[in-house]
Amino acid sequence: MNFIENISAFQNIIYIVSSILFITGIKMLGKEDTAVKGNFLSALAMFTAVAITLIDIVNPLLVIIGISIGAIIGSLIALKVKMTSIPEMVALFNGFGGLATFFIAWSEFYSIPDNTFQYVLVMITTYIGGVTFSGSIIAYGKLSEKLKIQKTSLITKFLTTIFYASLIYLLYAVFISKIFVPSFDFYTILLILTLLGGIGFVIPIGGGDMPVVISLLNSFSGIAAAFAGLLLLNNVLIVAGSLVGASGLILTIIMAKAMNRSIGNILFVGYASSSSGTKSEETGEVKPISVSDAYLILENSSSVLIIPGYGMAVAQAQHVVRELGELLEANGTEVKYGIHPVAGRMPGHMNVLLAEANVPYDVLVEPDDVNPTMDTVDVAVVIGANDVVNPSATEEPGSPIYGMPIIEVHNARTVFVLKRSMSSGFAGVQNPLFFKENTRMLFGDAKDSIGGLVSEFKD
Amino acid sequence: MNFIENISAFQNIIYIVSSILFITGIKMLGKEDTAVKGNFLSALAMFTAVAITLIDIVNPLLVIIGISIGAIIGSLIALKVKMTSIPEMVALFNGFGGLATFFIAWSEFYSIPDNTFQYVLVMITTYIGGVTFSGSIIAYGKLSEKLKIQKTSLITKFLTTIFYASLIYLLYAVFISKIFVPSFDFYTILLILTLLGGIGFVIPIGGGDMPVVISLLNSFSGIAAAFAGLLLLNNVLIVAGSLVGASGLILTIIMAKAMNRSIGNILFVGYASSSSGTKSEETGEVKPISVSDAYLILENSSSVLIIPGYGMAVAQAQHVVRELGELLEANGTEVKYGIHPVAGRMPGHMNVLLAEANVPYDVLVEPDDVNPTMDTVDVAVVIGANDVVNPSATEEPGSPIYGMPIIEVHNARTVFVLKRSMSSGFAGVQNPLFFKENTRMLFGDAKDSIGGLVSEFKD
Amino acid sequence: MEIYVLLGFVLILSIYLGLELISKVPSTLHTPLMSGANAISGIALVGALVLNSDTHLQEILALLAITFASINVFGGYLVTNRMLKMFKKK
Amino acid sequence: MEIYVLLGFVLILSIYLGLELISKVPSTLHTPLMSGANAISGIALVGALVLNSDTHLQEILALLAITFASINVFGGYLVTNRMLKMFKKK
Ligand SMILES: NC(=O)c1ccc[n+]([C@@H]2O[C@H](COP(=O)([O-])OP(=O)(O)OC[C@H]3O[C@@H](n4cnc5c(N)ncnc54)[C@H](OP(=O)(O)O)[C@@H]3O)[C@@H](O)[C@H]2O)c1
Ligand SMILES: NC(=O)c1ccc[n+]([C@@H]2O[C@H](COP(=O)([O-])OP(=O)(O)OC[C@H]3O[C@@H](n4cnc5c(N)ncnc54)[C@H](OP(=O)(O)O)[C@@H]3O)[C@@H](O)[C@H]2O)c1
Which of A259, A303, B125, B405 could form a disulfide with A334 if both were Cys (CB 3.0 to 4.6 A apart)? Predict the structure, then answer.
């Protein structure tokens, strides 16, 4: 008995050490110079916590099997995944984290004594874990475009109703039912409602808003782990879970701010896309340009700003873009990349793609750094970006994106817009940039257009 | 019983709320815009914690008497103290904080059960509290110049020895004696040794190093409170104490960095002032200047940088300095104040003095901001500063202050140095600035010299 | 002192600390931070390891929890590392 | 779980948080921060209030602890406020 007590006191101290490592790790992960080390530190923290837990494990076979399967699947996914599919992968992993805590809470349901507080913790942990799991799976489906469902369809409406019902059931379980003895059937209903509720939570949210949802689910998966920590009286679960909860929350807020929308609006309202339909269409002349004309202008310019957007990811054009950048530099042109925080479909999307294509991160500049000197830029090359360069955000108080910070390319001397058509971007609003005096449209798939420019340069 | 348990659970929750308020308060106290609110929030946190503790107090009379006396004395000190005496006052208050925890630990000595861990906590808390108290009183004495004692005197050496002895006694008490039953006599010896040890800790440290010592004692007073919190199982004491501990530590580090010395060097070595005596004296011509000549130059300059130092505090010249600044501005001259982080005798000393004299804080600039553009400054007016403008710090690798960041006034077009003599500053090293081509010495008490300039301007 | 109150306090402090530490993350690191956080949420593994397995159902639940949490841990750290390695200065 | 381990953990977390929060304080605020921290260390008052007073000695110790901590609290907050009020923007 004394021996076991000693072990658990010792474990607790090691858990604290591991918690401090996690904290330091995530701190370092947030800075460019130390990010790799930070990730390593956090992995070390994980290893420490797991290792010290293993010393008095009851069922080693179970553990070996579980960890082995997990290690194989996890490593395979991590090594195989394409950088453009990172959003889906993050969604999936969020789901797994949620599922693990869901199972933990479920199992604890059979172990806890008749203590009402522990019972409440089981209910809440089950709920957060379950919603994170099923919600993440839906987010995964939407992002990988395996799942397409109308917001107005009957099934969506049904599931949304289930989501609200599940919330009410949880509140009932937490605040009222504890007066009675919790019964198995009661809990089974919660299990089912929770899983369906998670689906209902995410399904009505537009595909483009998925990055915000993923961040939020990331946060939830952390909170679920923290609650599991409360349930199991385990402080490293509490700390690590809280850190994830905080990090997810911050990313959610950053994204919402960069889109100038509230989180509530994103989750429960969505863009009022109908309003843009009734809006008077922008009139004016669109001036297309050919690849060879564009080449001539680029060749003679001394400073070029490249603004990538979702279209670059779709066209997988990051490698040719980097090539173009290098050719321009070899030609004596100063090249910078203007990266908008919500360009693409997940936070930092463009940074990851460009990093993958070997663009050094110190030529990437943020809107605040580039906007004040935009008038010194000879050519702004907009590659598959739309909303993030839409001047309505600063000029048209009625626009749905009004107030969103943008990269103000319309102040550059010349603007090239590379896209396939005149269709709008994610927010579904017209872009007056296309009709400006200094704008030229280079129609076509981004990879093809840039590829064309690259071969012109090489000739 | 159940009622009391409920009260204490409720108290604990309120303590947590109070802790969060403290954390937020100190966070806001660290930013210029929110500092006043932050202090208020922290006072609110204190009020909350005290109020909730009072609800089940046993001896109300004692409490009323104690708090009343404390409130009266504290308020009187706070309202009467001159801004130039803030360092002494902080030293005194640190001491009081330490003393309170010292008494707490002492009292708990009679209440704790025979639990070795609590016994260890009592020993440590007694020690930190006691050393903080007696050390602070010595620091107070040195700062207010009521206490003058030679570093090499016999009594200093004796007390220093006692300090080391007290440390050994503490280690013995913590690690070895707990095998035996703690006896009263044993503890009494600790009490005495601790108080003497605190004196011995501070007494050999040079008067000029007192600010670092005060910060450190500030940190100690926090740590002592945190340990008292461990002893009493009280989380708000732990959190608030830790915050103070952290804040004191950071200020200590900032000061040590700005002086380019290690904390160990400051506490246990001191400046090797003998080396500067043997150094070859700086040769060269010193060019004095009269008040009226200085006035003519100032009148015709378009940008002036004022660098205040310890001498301004001694001369109480901050008000005339502000007046001079205003007259210069009225004359169309751009006026800035270059504030070195360790100018004066406590961190932020110059900021407080100038604020007292109504100089707005946005004309105060830090060394890093002003050094790069120093060559555009027409006149740098050095008022009772010495070490913080000593070019040896950048030019003479052998100098004791080499490596310390300075305000590089020697790069200004003209430098006026206002001091009473050619004597050196706190660090005891010669200042080659006085012999530079572009330097003019305006000898005399700073208040008189500046006063003279002001009357010239007014005529 | 109630253990839950204290653990709840640790939770609050950690969230506060997390918010402070991460609030100024540059946008370059948003994606790696997300997947790094993902890996950390695999800490559920530690919880999964201490579950009772008195019944068959509990045994299965524990196995599943361990497996999914492990996927998170291994997948999360590896992919984050892969991503971070791509970031280079000039 | 040992209560002391947990409280020690709260202590470590708070110090970490404190270091993060204060690390970038501008030099203008060094002195007010110091005296503000001074006031906070008067939290010892809360500890002093819950002391036993079974013996006369303990009663005296409690009274003294309450008094000195109160000086810190009242003096510290007032002087900090006085100082901060002096800082003005142009
Ligand atoms: N990053 C995030 O975390 C995040 C999260 C949530 C929402 N969002 C939202 O996503 C949007 C991101 O803005 P964005 O400017 O990057 O993208 P966008 O506004 O969605 O525009 C993308 C543009 O790329 C073009 N495109 C698509 N495929 C292309 C291809 N193969 N070649 C060339 N062009 C192609 C499309 O026009 P064509 O069809 O005419 O080619 C489209 O106009 C913002 O509204 C943001 O609020 C972002
Ligand atoms: N601020 C802190 O927290 C702190 C902490 C620890 C140590 N220190 C040390 O203190 C020093 C501060 O540098 P500092 O440049 O401010 O001061 P300093 O180097 O100590 O020099 C002060 C100068 O003021 C002159 N002075 C004294 N009374 C005067 C009066 N009434 N009128 C005109 N001049 C007068 C003195 O010269 P005369 O006698 O010729 O007049 C002296 O040279 C640094 O070495 C620093 O490391 C500061």
Answer: A303
User: What pTM, to 2 d.p., does this model score?
Assistant: 0.86
Q: Is B53 on the interface with C (CB under 8 A)?
A: no
Residue D10 C-alpha, separation from nearest chain C C-alpha, in angstroms: 6
Distance CA B400, CA B387 (A): 11
Q: Which chains share 3+ C-beta pairs under 8 angstroms with D?
A: A, B, C
Of A85, A110, A446, A100, residue with least CA distance to A294: A446
Task: Select which of B293, B387, B445, B448 is catalytic.
Answer: B387
Among B8, B16, B233, select the one facing C9 at the smallest CB separation.
B16
Cβ atoms within 10 A of the Cβ of B296, count? 12
Instruction: Name the average pLDDT for chain B.
Output: 87
pLDDT at B250: 93
Alpha carbon of A310: minimum distance to chain C alpha carbons (Å): 15
Note whether C45 contacts A29, CB cutoff 8 Å: no
Q: What is the largest CA-CA distance in chain C?
A: 58
User: What ipTM does the predicted assembly reach?
Assistant: 0.85
Q: Which of B412, B409, B413, B363 is nearest to B388 (CA)?
A: B409
How many CA within 13 A on the CB side of residue D28?
27
A399 φ, ψ to 5°?
A: -65, 145
> Which residue range(s) make up the domain with C41?
26-89
CA dist A105 and A191 (Å) reads 10
Segment of A175-184, A353-362, C16-25 carrying the highest mean pLDDT: C16-25
Is A375 known to be catalytic?
Answer: no
Domains of chain A: 81-272 (no CATH), 291-458 (3.40.50.1220)
What are the average pLDDT values for consecutive 10-residue runs of chain C, which has 90 residues? Answer: 85 94 86 92 95 90 96 95 80
Residue D30 within a domain: yes
> Does residue C49 sit within a domain?
yes
Alpha carbon distance D64, B63 (integer Å): 10
The domain total for chain C is 1
Q: Is C20 contained in some domain?
A: no
